[in-house]
Design goal:
This protein is α/β, with parallel strands linked by helices. The chain is built from eight helices and twelve strands. Helix 7 packs antiparallel against helix 8. Bound molecules: fe (ii) ion (FE2).
């Protein structure tokens, strides 16, 4: 079974379309999305409609932006730019797409008994896992050997080994065989708003039979996406940061 792992799409339909085109060539059986479908970008409905058209079994959890745009959270932790984008998104959503976001489950969620998924971390959907210190407590927050997470927008692998935790940031295309006797927290990076100074969309595919995670980056029309953000009247910096992957 091959799982397509997508996180932090953030209303970026250009990036999502490019990722799906690439992933289809690499083959996948099921789709797993780790939250933050919307927020920041100009095309929340196009993203949700495109995902709906994928004829594969799907597993979803909510992200912090998904909660705020449908009023399940007041956005108190958001900076002013993120909050402005959330309010814009709230007005732009079709009733059907709003209902979809409202119904998204809170992680962690077990997928096929093979692994778990969460947004920020297994213990707190709004918390980040940036370093080993955050990973230490979070390895106690799930039961499987592997948990995929998002939220930080940084493709990364945290490996619980016998004598400590190995922390790796993944640059570009990379294959990783998961080893027996280890546990993993793995972030496939962000489709729609990478923050590792690489503007290319990030995603991963997990082959649960071979226990292989494949990380990939896909270039897409960032300039066009930026123009859509500017034309929508969203904060200008939300478009500009896509150019540099920040
Ligand atoms: Fe996000």
């Amino acid at each position: 079974m091959r799982y397509l792992l997508l996180s932090d799409i953030h209303s970026n339909d250009e990036a999502l379309a490019a990722v799906l085109a690439r992933a289809r060539r690499r083959r996948f059986d099921r789709v797993v999305i780790l939250g933050d479908f919307v927020g920041y970008g100009a095309e929340p409905n196009a993203v949700l409609d495109r995902l709906r058209r994928i004829r594969k079994e799907k597993f979803f959890i909510r992200g912090n932006h998904d909660k705020v745009v449908c009023g399940l959270d007041d956005g108190e932790l958001f900076n002013p730019v993120a909050l402005e984008a959330a309010r814009w998104t709230e007005k732009a959503l079709t009733p059907r797409n709003r209902e979809f976001l409202e119904a998204l489950p809170l992680g962690p969620l077990a997928v096929d008994g093979a692994f778990e998924i969460c947004h920020g971390s297994p213990r707190d959907e709004d918390a980040y896992i940036f370093s080993y210190r955050y990973a230490v407590v979070n390895f106690q927050g799930f039961y499987s050997r592997v948990c995929f997470f998002g939220h930080s927008h940084i493709p990364s692998i945290f490996t619980l080994e016998l004598h400590g935790i190995r922390v790796e940031v993944v640059y570009g295309e990379h294959s990783r065989k998961l080893e027996e006797g280890r546990r993993y927290l793995i972030n496939p990076g962000s489709v729609g708003q990478p923050r590792d100074r690489n503007p290319a969309a990030s995603y991963a595919i997990y082959d649960a039979v071979k226990r292989l995670v494949f990380f990939d980056r896909v270039t897409y029309d960032v300039e066009r996406t930026r123009e859509k953000i500017h034309r929508a009247g969203l904060p200008v910096m939300l478009g500009d940061r896509l150019l540099v992957g920040a």
